[in-house]
Amino acid sequence: MNNDDLLRPFNLELAKQGEEICWSHLDCPVTFIGVSQAGKIAFESENELGFISSSSFRMKPLTWIDGIPVYKGDVLWYRGQQFCIEVQGYNPTCEDGLIGIVVKSQTELISVGEQTSAPFYQWQWDKPKQVVKRKVWINVYSDYFYSYFSKEEADTLAGKGRITCVEREIEYEV
Question: What is the pTM of this model?
């Protein structure tokens, strides 16, 4: 469900530059026409022309991802991959897609500064979690245990009463 409270406030300069606007409370198209001498916003909406306070408008997002509006300049992560983009706008060659410049990459397949695009459903707000596997050695005692990243370290630091040393592979997210 989209959270309309997260829509960005109306920005007159962006509207003058052609950025799309929307109603703050209605889901119907609205077009910015200009500003009256009294400071009211001239608009067209559903074949109706009018003047109204700028507080009735918000900046229209490019799309919504996970209920959050997406605007030019936002940073999104590619699902399942280790790179993110700064959103530039719609992708003209891909229906329902975004285009952006890679600003961070942890893969050799795509470089920072490259332009890339994908459908909306391929993007997410948060960096995907990376699962790391690692071997540890666990010194087991009657009342407690300690883990180490090498067998040598576990043996060197073994205390009195060690029952055993167990090797295990663990997984954790970073």
Answer: 0.68
